[in-house]
Amino acid sequence: MKQLLASILILLCVSGCAGVKDAVNPYEENFRCKAKDSEGKCLDTPTAYKEARLPDGQVSEAASNTSQVEAQNSRYKALADLLEAPETPVLNPPKILRVLLLPYKGENNELFMTRYAYLEIEPSQWVLTEVSEKNP
Fold it and tell me: What's the predicted TM-score (pTM) here?
């Protein structure tokens, strides 16, 4: 068994990366679009998505960048408003760790399959601690 494994390893090393690459990915990596003009366009995925959403090219790159900046500015303003309002408490969420449990066999020959366990590493915390309660 060890000799067979060693001979396979030697063959892989001698054949070089090209043989291994062809075995793993049998498809040609140099994609060249061969579509005729009557059959459609050859586009990368982001460009095809933009054309599908806005077929007439209604929004230019500058406009989409401007909208992203405006959205980010509005999020910053909302956060600044929250921090400036002392009566608004803010709660940091807890830190959760996701642990992958691989399949294993139990004591009585039962099989436990792959699953996740979620553990709370740090509890949630109040960020603004000096909150004055208002009585109605």
Answer: 0.30
Give, in order, the Cα–Cα distances in Å from 61 to each of 5, 24, 54.
55, 38, 12
* Size of the chain, expressed as the number of residues it contains: 136
Query: What Rg, from alpha-carbon coordinates, does the chain have?
Result: 29
- CA-to-CA distance for 42 and 134, rounded, in angstroms? 63
Q: Which amino acid is at 74?
A: S
Residue 20 backbone phi and psi in degrees, to 5? -70, -45
As a whole number of angstroms, the distance between CA 64 and CA 50 comes to: 11
Q: What is the amino acid identity at position 115?
A: R
Give, in order, the Cα–Cα distances in Å from 89 to each of 76, 92, 127: 17, 10, 7
Q: What is the mean pLDDT of the chain?
A: 76
Q: Rounded CA gap, 21 and 17, in Å?
A: 6
CA distance 35 to 48: 15
Instruction: Parse the chain into domains and list their residue ranges.
Output: 35-84, 89-131
- Could you report the per-residue pLDDT of 87-125, keeping only the tens digit for each? 667 789 999 999 999 999 999 999 999 999 999 999 998
